[in-house]
Specification:
The chain has one domain. About 75% of the residues lie in helices and about 0% in strands. The protein has 4 helices and no strands. About 20% of the residues are buried. The structure holds protoporphyrin IX containing FE (HEM). The site of protoporphyrin IX containing FE has 20 residues, from helix 1, helix 2, helix 3 and helix 4.
């Protein structure tokens, strides 16, 4: 398999994953019942599974790993924070202020992940 094709798959899934999270969070904050859409319920699982499978393949080719290489450790930790904050942001029936806080914090985390991916640096190359 070609490294750059898998990397393209990984990046495309990353863009779709972020876009779908932003959309679902935005709809939820606007009071729209997005869970009625089967596409919005199922697509994120398929995309995130593909994103992570591609990530595993990429690290196996690069021979760089979380908890060994700083930038991948930062990506992994920020990914866990993104998933947890995202879950809280999409939880139903919580006050709007809290939901907004979790939503913005999750978007901040994923922006950091992209920054780390591009710079290969936990400090974003600063
Ligand atoms: C929401 C989660 C993630 C997002 C948004 C994301 C985003 C990206 C982006 C945008 C790139 C391309 C960077 C560039 O060269 O310009 C990339 C590459 C890469 N990502 Fe991810 N990623 C995520 C999760 C992960 C995870 C969990 C791992 C592994 C622990 C990982 C491993 C890699 C690797 C190995 C590359 C290729 C680096 C290279 O060839 O230069 N990613 N990622």
């Amino acid at each position: 398999m070609d490294y750059f094709i898998v990397k393209d798959v990984h990046m495309t899934c990353a863009a779709l994953s972020i876009g779908l999270f932003a959309l679902r969070g935005g709809l939820q904050l606007a009071g729209v019942a997005w869970r009625r859409s089967m596409l919005l319920r199922i697509a994120p699982h398929v995309i995130d599974t593909t994103l992570l499978t591609a990530a595993l393949w990429l690290i196996s080719q690069l021979h760089q790993y979380p908890f060994v290489d700083g930038w991948l450790t930062a990506k992994f930790v920020a990914l866990v924070a993104y998933v947890l904050l995202g879950k809280l942001a999409l939880r139903q029936g919580q006050p709007a202020r809290r939901a907004w806080g979790f939503y913005l914090a999750a978007l901040f985390c994923v922006a950091y992940i992209v920054g780390v991916a591009v710079t290969h640096s936990p400090l974003l190359g600063l």
